[in-house]
Amino acid sequence: MHTAPIVAAMRKYSADAVMPFHTPGHKQGRGAHKLLRELLTAEGLRQEVSLMEELDDLHEPHACIMEAQNLAARLWHADDCLFMVNGTTSAVQAMIFGTVQAGDSIMIPRNAHRSVIAGLILSGASPIFLPVEFDAELCLPLNVTIATIERAIKKFPQAKAVLLVSPNYYGVAADLPKIAELVHAAGMMLLVDEAHGAHLPFSDELPPSAMDAGADLAAQSTHKILGSLTQTSMLMIRRGLVDVERVRRAASLLQTTSPNQLLLASLDIARLQMETDGRRRIQAAVDLSKNLRGLIKKIHGLKTFDAVKNFALDATKVTVKVTGLGLTGQKAEEILRRDLKVQCELSDAANLLFLITYADTAETTAALVDALNRLPHRPPIPCPLSLVPCPLSTAELSPRETFYAPVEVVGLREAVGRICAEEITFYPPGIPLIMPGEKISAQTVDLIRQATGRVIGANDPTLATVKVIRQENRPRDRNYRR
To answer: For the sheet containing 317-321, what is the strand order?
Structure first.
Protein backbone atom coordinates (compact mmCIF):
# COMPACT_ATOMS: atom_id res chain seq x y z
CA MET A 1 0.00 0.00 0.00
CA HIS A 2 1.33 3.42 -0.96
CA THR A 3 1.62 5.84 1.96
CA ALA A 4 2.92 9.29 2.86
CA PRO A 5 4.18 8.82 6.45
CA ILE A 6 4.83 12.49 7.25
CA VAL A 7 1.41 13.55 5.98
CA ALA A 8 -0.27 10.79 7.97
CA ALA A 9 1.48 11.91 11.17
CA MET A 10 0.49 15.55 10.61
CA ARG A 11 -3.15 14.63 10.04
CA LYS A 12 -3.21 12.49 13.16
CA TYR A 13 -1.80 15.29 15.32
CA SER A 14 -4.27 17.80 13.87
CA ALA A 15 -7.20 15.42 14.44
CA ASP A 16 -6.30 14.98 18.11
CA ALA A 17 -7.59 18.52 18.81
CA VAL A 18 -4.68 19.24 21.15
CA MET A 19 -4.71 22.64 22.92
CA PRO A 20 -1.42 24.14 21.64
CA PHE A 21 0.89 25.99 24.01
CA HIS A 22 3.82 25.70 21.66
CA THR A 23 5.18 27.20 18.45
CA PRO A 24 4.22 28.42 15.91
CA GLY A 25 2.66 31.57 17.32
CA HIS A 26 -0.45 31.45 15.14
CA LYS A 27 -1.50 28.34 17.14
CA GLN A 28 -2.68 26.13 14.26
CA GLY A 29 -4.31 29.08 12.52
CA ARG A 30 -6.26 30.48 15.47
CA GLY A 31 -4.39 33.78 15.34
CA ALA A 32 -3.55 33.84 11.65
CA HIS A 33 -4.30 36.96 9.63
CA LYS A 34 -7.00 36.61 6.98
CA LEU A 35 -4.41 36.89 4.23
CA LEU A 36 -2.38 34.04 5.70
CA ARG A 37 -5.50 31.89 6.08
CA GLU A 38 -6.35 32.55 2.43
CA LEU A 39 -2.81 31.71 1.42
CA LEU A 40 -2.40 28.46 3.31
CA THR A 41 -6.04 27.44 3.97
CA ALA A 42 -7.41 26.58 7.41
CA GLU A 43 -6.38 22.94 7.11
CA GLY A 44 -2.85 23.86 6.08
CA LEU A 45 -2.49 26.11 9.13
CA ARG A 46 -3.83 23.42 11.45
CA GLN A 47 -1.11 21.09 10.23
CA GLU A 48 1.64 23.72 10.21
CA VAL A 49 3.26 22.49 13.41
CA SER A 50 6.60 20.84 14.09
CA LEU A 51 8.90 19.44 16.76
CA MET A 52 6.14 17.36 18.35
CA GLU A 53 7.13 13.80 19.24
CA GLU A 54 4.62 12.33 16.78
CA LEU A 55 6.02 14.47 13.96
CA ASP A 56 9.62 13.23 14.35
CA ASP A 57 12.86 15.24 14.27
CA LEU A 58 14.61 16.04 10.98
CA HIS A 59 17.99 16.08 12.76
CA GLU A 60 17.48 12.74 14.52
CA PRO A 61 14.76 10.99 12.52
CA HIS A 62 13.32 7.86 14.07
CA ALA A 63 9.66 7.76 12.99
CA CYS A 64 7.68 9.26 10.08
CA ILE A 65 10.59 11.32 8.65
CA MET A 66 12.91 8.32 8.75
CA GLU A 67 10.26 6.19 7.03
CA ALA A 68 9.66 8.83 4.35
CA GLN A 69 13.39 9.21 3.69
CA ASN A 70 13.81 5.44 3.39
CA LEU A 71 10.95 5.28 0.88
CA ALA A 72 12.59 8.05 -1.18
CA ALA A 73 15.98 6.32 -1.09
CA ARG A 74 14.40 3.14 -2.42
CA LEU A 75 12.56 4.96 -5.22
CA TRP A 76 15.66 6.85 -6.39
CA HIS A 77 17.90 3.76 -6.07
CA ALA A 78 20.04 5.16 -3.22
CA ASP A 79 21.14 3.58 0.04
CA ASP A 80 20.12 6.60 2.11
CA CYS A 81 18.24 9.85 1.56
CA LEU A 82 18.25 13.10 3.55
CA PHE A 83 15.38 15.57 3.23
CA MET A 84 16.63 19.14 2.83
CA VAL A 85 14.49 22.21 3.59
CA ASN A 86 17.20 24.87 3.07
CA GLY A 87 17.27 24.29 -0.66
CA THR A 88 19.69 22.36 -2.86
CA THR A 89 22.25 24.97 -1.90
CA SER A 90 22.53 23.32 1.53
CA ALA A 91 22.51 19.84 -0.05
CA VAL A 92 25.47 20.74 -2.27
CA GLN A 93 27.28 22.33 0.66
CA ALA A 94 26.64 19.21 2.78
CA MET A 95 28.09 17.00 0.03
CA ILE A 96 31.33 18.96 0.11
CA PHE A 97 31.47 19.74 3.83
CA GLY A 98 30.76 16.08 4.57
CA THR A 99 33.46 14.60 2.34
CA VAL A 100 36.52 16.90 2.09
CA GLN A 101 38.45 19.15 4.44
CA ALA A 102 41.34 21.63 4.60
CA GLY A 103 44.31 20.24 2.71
CA ASP A 104 42.14 18.14 0.38
CA SER A 105 41.64 18.84 -3.31
CA ILE A 106 38.36 18.40 -5.15
CA MET A 107 37.71 18.72 -8.88
CA ILE A 108 34.85 21.03 -9.86
CA PRO A 109 33.58 22.45 -13.17
CA ARG A 110 34.75 25.98 -13.72
CA ASN A 111 31.14 27.19 -13.94
CA ALA A 112 29.92 25.40 -10.80
CA HIS A 113 27.08 26.99 -8.83
CA ARG A 114 28.01 29.44 -6.08
CA SER A 115 26.88 26.86 -3.51
CA VAL A 116 29.93 24.79 -4.49
CA ILE A 117 32.27 27.66 -3.65
CA ALA A 118 30.40 28.15 -0.37
CA GLY A 119 30.93 24.46 0.38
CA LEU A 120 34.64 24.87 -0.24
CA ILE A 121 34.77 27.87 2.10
CA LEU A 122 33.08 25.80 4.80
CA SER A 123 35.29 22.75 4.30
CA GLY A 124 38.59 24.49 3.60
CA ALA A 125 39.27 22.26 0.58
CA SER A 126 40.92 23.56 -2.58
CA PRO A 127 39.38 23.34 -6.06
CA ILE A 128 40.86 21.93 -9.22
CA PHE A 129 39.00 23.69 -12.02
CA LEU A 130 37.74 21.46 -14.84
CA PRO A 131 37.26 23.03 -18.30
CA VAL A 132 33.66 23.05 -19.55
CA GLU A 133 32.97 22.53 -23.25
CA PHE A 134 31.19 25.37 -25.04
CA ASP A 135 29.19 25.05 -28.28
CA ALA A 136 29.71 28.17 -30.38
CA GLU A 137 26.85 27.32 -32.75
CA LEU A 138 24.32 26.75 -29.97
CA CYS A 139 25.93 29.55 -27.96
CA LEU A 140 25.75 27.74 -24.64
CA PRO A 141 27.93 25.76 -22.21
CA LEU A 142 27.79 21.97 -22.44
CA ASN A 143 29.50 19.88 -19.76
CA VAL A 144 32.76 18.19 -18.76
CA THR A 145 34.06 15.48 -21.11
CA ILE A 146 35.42 12.05 -20.28
CA ALA A 147 38.77 13.10 -21.78
CA THR A 148 38.96 16.05 -19.38
CA ILE A 149 38.31 13.77 -16.40
CA GLU A 150 40.96 11.33 -17.56
CA ARG A 151 43.49 14.13 -17.94
CA ALA A 152 42.59 15.63 -14.57
CA ILE A 153 42.94 12.32 -12.72
CA LYS A 154 46.34 11.75 -14.28
CA LYS A 155 47.57 15.25 -13.40
CA PHE A 156 46.00 15.42 -9.91
CA PRO A 157 45.89 11.85 -8.55
CA GLN A 158 45.81 13.20 -4.98
CA ALA A 159 42.30 14.64 -5.40
CA LYS A 160 39.74 13.22 -2.97
CA ALA A 161 36.62 13.76 -5.08
CA VAL A 162 35.16 14.94 -8.37
CA LEU A 163 32.04 17.13 -8.36
CA LEU A 164 30.02 17.53 -11.56
CA VAL A 165 26.84 19.39 -12.50
CA SER A 166 24.74 16.93 -14.49
CA PRO A 167 22.45 17.63 -16.17
CA ASN A 168 23.25 21.33 -16.36
CA TYR A 169 20.66 24.09 -16.56
CA TYR A 170 20.19 23.46 -20.30
CA GLY A 171 19.74 19.71 -19.78
CA VAL A 172 23.18 18.70 -21.09
CA ALA A 173 24.41 15.68 -19.12
CA ALA A 174 27.93 14.34 -18.70
CA ASP A 175 28.65 10.65 -19.32
CA LEU A 176 28.25 9.82 -15.64
CA PRO A 177 28.45 5.99 -15.92
CA LYS A 178 31.86 6.13 -17.61
CA ILE A 179 33.08 8.97 -15.39
CA ALA A 180 32.01 7.07 -12.26
CA GLU A 181 34.16 4.13 -13.36
CA LEU A 182 37.19 6.39 -13.92
CA VAL A 183 36.74 8.29 -10.66
CA HIS A 184 36.25 5.18 -8.54
CA ALA A 185 39.18 3.39 -10.17
CA ALA A 186 41.32 6.32 -9.00
CA GLY A 187 39.99 5.96 -5.44
CA MET A 188 38.01 9.20 -5.57
CA MET A 189 34.38 9.95 -4.74
CA LEU A 190 31.91 11.20 -7.37
CA LEU A 191 29.57 13.96 -6.15
CA VAL A 192 26.83 15.23 -8.46
CA ASP A 193 24.91 18.47 -8.35
CA GLU A 194 21.75 16.97 -9.87
CA ALA A 195 19.53 19.95 -9.08
CA HIS A 196 17.86 19.65 -12.48
CA GLY A 197 17.58 15.87 -12.60
CA ALA A 198 15.20 14.53 -9.94
CA HIS A 199 12.91 13.23 -12.70
CA LEU A 200 15.53 11.22 -14.61
CA PRO A 201 14.77 7.74 -13.20
CA PHE A 202 11.21 7.84 -14.50
CA SER A 203 11.81 7.62 -18.25
CA ASP A 204 14.11 5.34 -20.22
CA GLU A 205 14.50 8.13 -22.79
CA LEU A 206 16.29 10.42 -20.34
CA PRO A 207 19.96 10.30 -19.27
CA PRO A 208 20.68 7.92 -16.38
CA SER A 209 20.32 9.46 -12.94
CA ALA A 210 23.40 10.08 -10.81
CA MET A 211 22.55 7.19 -8.47
CA ASP A 212 21.93 4.80 -11.35
CA ALA A 213 25.23 5.92 -12.91
CA GLY A 214 27.16 5.05 -9.75
CA ALA A 215 27.61 8.43 -8.04
CA ASP A 216 28.37 8.45 -4.31
CA LEU A 217 26.29 11.53 -3.51
CA ALA A 218 23.67 13.45 -5.49
CA ALA A 219 21.85 16.65 -4.56
CA GLN A 220 18.42 16.94 -6.20
CA SER A 221 16.07 19.93 -6.35
CA THR A 222 12.81 18.04 -5.94
CA HIS A 223 10.88 21.30 -6.32
CA LYS A 224 12.42 22.31 -9.65
CA ILE A 225 10.92 19.59 -11.84
CA LEU A 226 8.73 17.52 -9.52
CA GLY A 227 5.90 18.44 -7.16
CA SER A 228 7.35 19.55 -3.82
CA LEU A 229 7.36 23.11 -2.51
CA THR A 230 10.07 25.58 -3.42
CA GLN A 231 13.12 25.26 -1.17
CA THR A 232 12.80 21.49 -0.76
CA SER A 233 15.41 19.03 -1.98
CA MET A 234 16.83 15.59 -1.34
CA LEU A 235 20.40 14.41 -0.83
CA MET A 236 20.92 10.87 -2.10
CA ILE A 237 23.72 8.73 -0.64
CA ARG A 238 25.48 5.56 -1.81
CA ARG A 239 27.31 3.74 0.97
CA GLY A 240 30.89 2.61 0.51
CA LEU A 241 33.33 5.45 -0.10
CA VAL A 242 31.25 8.02 1.77
CA ASP A 243 31.26 8.45 5.55
CA VAL A 244 27.47 8.52 5.87
CA GLU A 245 27.42 9.80 9.45
CA ARG A 246 29.73 12.67 8.60
CA VAL A 247 27.46 13.67 5.72
CA ARG A 248 24.46 13.51 8.08
CA ARG A 249 26.26 15.77 10.57
CA ALA A 250 27.16 18.21 7.82
CA ALA A 251 23.56 18.34 6.59
CA SER A 252 22.32 18.88 10.14
CA LEU A 253 24.71 21.80 10.68
CA LEU A 254 23.49 23.46 7.48
CA GLN A 255 19.74 23.11 8.06
CA THR A 256 17.35 25.02 10.27
CA THR A 257 16.54 23.54 13.66
CA SER A 258 12.90 24.54 13.06
CA PRO A 259 12.02 22.84 9.77
CA ASN A 260 8.62 23.68 8.36
CA GLN A 261 6.49 20.55 8.44
CA LEU A 262 4.62 21.60 5.31
CA LEU A 263 7.91 21.58 3.40
CA LEU A 264 8.74 18.09 4.67
CA ALA A 265 5.23 16.92 3.82
CA SER A 266 5.60 18.23 0.29
CA LEU A 267 8.72 16.10 -0.20
CA ASP A 268 6.81 13.09 1.09
CA ILE A 269 3.94 13.82 -1.31
CA ALA A 270 6.24 14.40 -4.29
CA ARG A 271 7.82 11.02 -3.65
CA LEU A 272 4.38 9.39 -3.37
CA GLN A 273 3.28 10.97 -6.65
CA MET A 274 6.35 9.66 -8.48
CA GLU A 275 6.00 6.24 -6.89
CA THR A 276 2.37 5.84 -7.96
CA ASP A 277 2.35 7.64 -11.30
CA GLY A 278 5.85 8.90 -12.03
CA ARG A 279 6.73 6.93 -15.11
CA ARG A 280 3.52 7.84 -16.92
CA ARG A 281 3.75 11.51 -16.02
CA ILE A 282 7.45 11.98 -16.85
CA GLN A 283 7.15 10.05 -20.10
CA ALA A 284 4.24 12.30 -21.05
CA ALA A 285 6.49 15.32 -20.45
CA VAL A 286 9.18 13.79 -22.65
CA ASP A 287 6.67 13.17 -25.44
CA LEU A 288 5.32 16.72 -25.17
CA SER A 289 8.87 18.07 -25.38
CA LYS A 290 9.60 16.11 -28.54
CA ASN A 291 6.46 17.39 -30.20
CA LEU A 292 7.22 20.93 -29.05
CA ARG A 293 10.68 20.83 -30.61
CA GLY A 294 9.23 19.71 -33.92
CA LEU A 295 6.79 22.64 -33.94
CA ILE A 296 9.47 25.17 -32.95
CA LYS A 297 11.75 24.03 -35.76
CA LYS A 298 9.05 25.09 -38.22
CA ILE A 299 9.09 28.70 -36.97
CA HIS A 300 11.28 30.88 -39.16
CA GLY A 301 14.21 32.40 -37.29
CA LEU A 302 14.12 30.02 -34.32
CA LYS A 303 16.42 27.08 -33.65
CA THR A 304 16.28 24.29 -31.10
CA PHE A 305 18.17 21.04 -30.70
CA ASP A 306 17.40 17.51 -29.58
CA ALA A 307 20.92 16.07 -29.43
CA VAL A 308 24.40 17.25 -28.45
CA LYS A 309 27.59 15.54 -29.66
CA ASN A 310 29.47 13.68 -26.91
CA PHE A 311 26.79 14.39 -24.31
CA ALA A 312 23.34 13.15 -23.35
CA LEU A 313 20.37 15.54 -23.29
CA ASP A 314 17.38 15.81 -21.00
CA ALA A 315 14.59 16.26 -23.53
CA THR A 316 12.35 18.12 -21.09
CA LYS A 317 14.67 21.16 -21.18
CA VAL A 318 13.80 22.99 -24.41
CA THR A 319 16.35 25.62 -25.43
CA VAL A 320 15.34 28.01 -28.21
CA LYS A 321 17.90 30.19 -29.98
CA VAL A 322 16.31 33.51 -30.97
CA THR A 323 19.15 35.43 -32.64
CA GLY A 324 17.68 34.47 -36.03
CA LEU A 325 14.80 36.81 -35.17
CA GLY A 326 17.23 39.64 -34.49
CA LEU A 327 16.58 39.35 -30.75
CA THR A 328 18.72 38.61 -27.75
CA GLY A 329 17.36 36.06 -25.32
CA GLN A 330 16.79 38.80 -22.76
CA LYS A 331 14.77 40.91 -25.19
CA ALA A 332 12.69 37.93 -26.27
CA GLU A 333 11.97 37.11 -22.62
CA GLU A 334 10.82 40.69 -22.04
CA ILE A 335 8.42 40.57 -25.00
CA LEU A 336 7.03 37.16 -24.01
CA ARG A 337 6.42 38.20 -20.41
CA ARG A 338 5.17 41.75 -21.02
CA ASP A 339 3.11 41.34 -24.18
CA LEU A 340 2.30 37.64 -24.49
CA LYS A 341 2.03 36.57 -20.83
CA VAL A 342 4.47 33.68 -21.16
CA GLN A 343 7.41 33.30 -18.77
CA CYS A 344 10.49 31.27 -19.61
CA GLU A 345 12.79 29.68 -17.03
CA LEU A 346 15.92 31.46 -18.21
CA SER A 347 17.19 33.77 -20.92
CA ASP A 348 20.76 34.43 -21.98
CA ALA A 349 22.37 36.47 -24.74
CA ALA A 350 21.08 34.14 -27.47
CA ASN A 351 18.60 31.66 -26.00
CA LEU A 352 15.39 31.06 -24.09
CA LEU A 353 15.00 28.01 -21.88
CA PHE A 354 11.59 26.41 -21.27
CA LEU A 355 10.99 23.61 -18.75
CA ILE A 356 8.39 21.02 -19.68
CA THR A 357 7.26 19.13 -16.60
CA TYR A 358 4.66 16.54 -15.65
CA ALA A 359 2.24 19.45 -15.11
CA ASP A 360 2.26 20.51 -18.77
CA THR A 361 -0.30 19.51 -21.37
CA ALA A 362 -0.82 19.76 -25.11
CA GLU A 363 -2.73 22.99 -24.40
CA THR A 364 0.12 24.66 -22.51
CA THR A 365 2.74 23.74 -25.12
CA ALA A 366 0.40 24.90 -27.92
CA ALA A 367 0.10 28.26 -26.16
CA LEU A 368 3.88 28.47 -26.01
CA VAL A 369 4.21 27.75 -29.72
CA ASP A 370 1.60 30.42 -30.45
CA ALA A 371 3.55 32.97 -28.38
CA LEU A 372 6.83 32.11 -30.11
CA ASN A 373 5.12 32.56 -33.49
CA ARG A 374 4.15 36.07 -32.43
CA LEU A 375 7.67 37.25 -31.60
CA PRO A 376 8.79 40.12 -33.88
CA HIS A 377 11.09 39.45 -36.83
CA ARG A 378 14.17 41.62 -37.33
CA PRO A 379 17.46 41.15 -39.21
CA PRO A 380 19.41 38.27 -37.63
CA ILE A 381 22.18 39.06 -35.18
CA PRO A 382 25.28 37.01 -34.33
CA CYS A 383 25.74 35.28 -31.00
CA PRO A 384 27.67 37.78 -28.84
CA LEU A 385 30.22 35.15 -27.87
CA SER A 386 33.41 35.69 -25.88
CA LEU A 387 35.28 32.40 -26.15
CA VAL A 388 38.19 32.28 -23.75
CA PRO A 389 40.51 29.38 -22.93
CA CYS A 390 39.69 27.60 -19.67
CA PRO A 391 42.60 25.30 -18.84
CA LEU A 392 42.75 22.60 -16.21
CA SER A 393 44.07 24.62 -13.29
CA THR A 394 44.33 25.23 -9.54
CA ALA A 395 44.19 28.38 -7.45
CA GLU A 396 46.92 29.98 -5.35
CA LEU A 397 44.64 30.22 -2.33
CA SER A 398 41.72 28.07 -1.24
CA PRO A 399 38.25 29.68 -1.23
CA ARG A 400 38.38 29.77 2.59
CA GLU A 401 41.73 31.57 2.62
CA THR A 402 40.50 34.00 -0.01
CA PHE A 403 37.26 34.64 1.87
CA TYR A 404 39.07 35.72 5.03
CA ALA A 405 41.94 37.57 3.36
CA PRO A 406 42.11 41.41 3.39
CA VAL A 407 41.55 42.89 -0.07
CA GLU A 408 42.28 46.05 -1.97
CA VAL A 409 41.25 47.55 -5.30
CA VAL A 410 43.86 48.16 -8.01
CA GLY A 411 43.83 49.12 -11.67
CA LEU A 412 43.52 46.26 -14.14
CA ARG A 413 47.06 46.68 -15.47
CA GLU A 414 48.47 46.76 -11.93
CA ALA A 415 46.70 43.48 -11.12
CA VAL A 416 49.16 41.30 -13.07
CA GLY A 417 50.83 38.86 -10.68
CA ARG A 418 48.30 39.54 -7.90
CA ILE A 419 45.78 37.07 -6.49
CA CYS A 420 42.21 37.82 -7.51
CA ALA A 421 39.63 38.32 -4.76
CA GLU A 422 36.51 38.22 -6.94
CA GLU A 423 34.98 36.27 -9.78
CA ILE A 424 35.16 37.74 -13.29
CA THR A 425 32.73 36.20 -15.77
CA PHE A 426 31.59 37.33 -19.19
CA TYR A 427 28.09 36.27 -20.19
CA PRO A 428 28.08 34.54 -22.59
CA PRO A 429 29.67 32.06 -22.23
CA GLY A 430 29.00 32.26 -18.48
CA ILE A 431 32.19 30.39 -17.62
CA PRO A 432 34.35 32.38 -15.16
CA LEU A 433 37.51 33.73 -16.73
CA ILE A 434 39.11 33.99 -13.31
CA MET A 435 37.99 32.81 -9.88
CA PRO A 436 38.77 34.12 -6.39
CA GLY A 437 42.15 32.80 -5.26
CA GLU A 438 43.64 32.54 -8.76
CA LYS A 439 46.70 34.54 -9.84
CA ILE A 440 46.03 37.16 -12.50
CA SER A 441 48.42 36.75 -15.43
CA ALA A 442 49.27 39.20 -18.20
CA GLN A 443 47.42 36.86 -20.59
CA THR A 444 44.32 37.03 -18.39
CA VAL A 445 44.42 40.82 -18.41
CA ASP A 446 44.70 40.81 -22.21
CA LEU A 447 41.70 38.45 -22.42
CA ILE A 448 39.69 40.69 -20.09
CA ARG A 449 40.46 43.72 -22.25
CA GLN A 450 39.42 41.90 -25.43
CA ALA A 451 36.33 40.11 -24.11
CA THR A 452 32.81 41.34 -24.73
CA GLY A 453 29.50 40.63 -23.06
CA ARG A 454 27.85 41.32 -19.73
CA VAL A 455 30.23 41.20 -16.77
CA ILE A 456 29.10 39.15 -13.77
CA GLY A 457 30.69 38.89 -10.34
CA ALA A 458 33.07 41.83 -10.52
CA ASN A 459 32.79 44.75 -8.12
CA ASP A 460 33.59 47.14 -11.00
CA PRO A 461 31.52 46.11 -14.07
CA THR A 462 33.77 48.24 -16.32
CA LEU A 463 36.78 46.17 -15.13
CA ALA A 464 38.91 49.29 -15.00
CA THR A 465 39.72 48.05 -11.49
CA VAL A 466 39.69 44.65 -9.81
CA LYS A 467 39.74 43.41 -6.22
CA VAL A 468 42.91 41.57 -5.21
CA ILE A 469 44.38 40.12 -2.03
CA ARG A 470 46.60 42.50 -0.08
CA GLN A 471 50.18 41.33 -0.34
CA GLU A 472 51.19 41.93 3.26
CA ASN A 473 50.25 39.52 6.03
CA ARG A 474 48.61 36.98 3.74
CA PRO A 475 46.53 34.71 6.01
CA ARG A 476 46.84 30.97 5.97
CA ASP A 477 44.54 28.28 7.31
CA ARG A 478 46.82 26.54 9.80
CA ASN A 479 45.40 23.20 8.67
CA TYR A 480 46.04 24.00 5.05
CA ARG A 481 48.73 21.98 3.30
CA ARG A 482 49.96 22.90 -0.15
So the answer is: 303-304, 317-321, 351-355, 346-347
CATH number of this structure's domain 57-274: 3.40.640.10
Q: Please give the CATH architecture assigned to the domain spanning 395-469.
A: Alpha-Beta Complex (3.90)
Per-residue pLDDT of the chain (482 residues; tens, 9 = 90+): 688 999 999 999 888 888 888 888 889 888 889 998 999 998 998 898 877 888 999 999 999 999 999 999 999 999 999 999 999 999 999 999 999 999 999 999 999 999 999 999 999 999 999 999 999 888 899 999 999 999 999 999 999 999 999 999 999 999 999 999 999 999 999 999 999 999 999 999 999 999 999 999 999 999 999 999 999 999 999 999 999 999 999 999 999 999 999 999 999 999 999 999 999 999 999 999 999 999 999 999 999 999 999 999 999 999 999 999 999 999 999 999 999 999 999 999 899 999 999 999 999 999 999 999 999 999 999 886 656 667 899 999 999 999 999 999 999 999 999 999 999 988 767 788 899 999 999 999 988 888 877 888 899 999 999 999 998 644 554 443 33
Which CATH number fits the domain 276-373, given the four candidates 3.40.190.10, 3.30.70.260, 3.40.50.80, 3.90.1150.10?
Answer: 3.90.1150.10
Burial 331-364 (b: 16+ CB within 10 A, else e): bbbebbeeebebebeebbbbbbbbbbbbebeeee
Q: Sort strands 351-355 and 346-347 into parallel, antiparallel or unpaired.
A: antiparallel
Domain boundaries, the chain: 1-55, 57-274, 276-373, 395-469
Whether 428 contacts 452, CB under 8 Å: no
Closest CA to 122 of 475, 404, 427: 404
Question: Which residue blocks in 2-140 are alpha helix, DSSP H?
Answer: 5-15, 34-40, 42-46, 64-75, 87-97, 114-123
pTM over 0.85: yes
- Calpha distance 3→236 (Å, rounded): 20
The Cα 59–Cα 248 span in angstroms is 8
